[in-house]
Amino acid sequence: MNLARLDLNLVVALRALLEERNVTRAGERIGLSQPAMSAALARLRRHFDDDLLARVGAHYELTALGQVLLDRTSTAYDLLERLFASQAHFDPAKESREFGLMASDYAVAVFGTELARVVHEEAPGIRLRFSQTPPTVVDDTATLLSATDGLLMPHGVVSDFPATDLYEDHWVFVVSADHPGVGDRLTRADLARLPWVTYQRTYDSPAVRQLGMLGVEPRVEVSVDSFQLLPLLVAGTRRIALVQARLARLLAPLAAVRVVTPPYEAVPLREALWWHPVHTHDAAHIWLRETAARVGKSLTQMPKA
User: Fold this and answer.
1) 3-25: per-residue pLDDT in tens?
2) Are residues 209 and 156 in contact, defined by beta-carbon separation less than 8 angstroms?
3) Residue 235 pLDDT > 90
4) How far apart are CA 149 and CA 55, in angstroms?
5) Which end of the chain is more exposed for a tag (fewer CB within 10 A), N or C?
6) What confidence tens digit (pLDDT) does each residue in 106-136 have?
7) Do the Cβ atoms of 295 and 101 come closer than 8 Å?
8) For the chain, the helix, strand and coil percentages under 3-state DSSP, each to the nearest 5
């Protein structure tokens, strides 16, 4: 397909039409008259050789192709918006802009809070928006990265995209502060006999996958979609949980738990900031990456546990 022959304004019209499913409302949304919007719809129908919007009674519904295009158009629109918002020069002290980052609650607690503090001091007009990493990150990384400024994710989960290393962490176990059956170190027998609290999305926990390679099958009693809740669900019980050391250090005083050493050499955790190549030469994004790397370096110089 020859992109030079396409009118990219049609992407704006297509998104409005597919989301509003009404020519008048779509035109009002993007500032076009009803005749102009009807003309845009006619051009889109000719291009795709499909009605896109089909009348059903008194309203319109998306055709099968229209339904497919709905998500793709939103992604394409976001990517184009970021592409044409790229800057050759960026002054963080004067600019006003929002950066969106996908991250687990662990990454926000350990790294995001410090990044937000530095940005607050150095770039008062910059806003940070953290959103939970969706389960589809492994299967559709390119689409997700195209719609955000970055992804905070350890190495070993995604690949083939540019990344800036931030800091390292390691894995520890947490048990209730008054657990009667666990000393300073767990044994492999403890891992088999004690009930577990686990993080639901195992792609964020390579160390959990490592347990299977060691022949350890956790007896899961509770699973939760939050790293920060793990210590709270361990406190006052016989349960154990595998937690990042930096997070355990933050939460142990609040959750009445204590940290114990794994009975094996757990794989290290190397946190990184991943981004879509479209951002690589954008001055604002370069500033974000350099600031993140500086914050990560400051964490590296701090004790982990």
Assistant:
1) 556 777 788 899 999 999 999 99
2) no
3) yes
4) 38
5) N
6) 999 999 999 999 999 999 999 999 999 988 7
7) no
8) 45, 20, 30
Read off the tokens for 86.
């790229």
Which residue's entry shows tokens 């657990």? 179
Tell the burial category of 147 from Cβ atoms under 10 Å away from its Cβ (0-12, 13-18, 19+): middle
Inter-axis angle of helices 9-20 and 64-84, nearest 10: 130
Task: Give the whole-angstrom CA distance, residue 161 versus residue 175.
Answer: 37
Residue with tokens 């969106």: 100
The pTM of this model reads 0.72
Q: β-strand 97-103 against 150-154: which pairing, if any? A: parallel
From residue 16, how far is each of 30, 73, 226, 276 by CA, in Å? 7, 10, 35, 25
Complete edge-to-edge strand list for the sheet that includes strand 163-169: 126-132, 97-103, 150-154, 269-274, 163-169
Q: How far is CA 88 from CA 74, 145, 287, in A?
A: 26, 21, 11
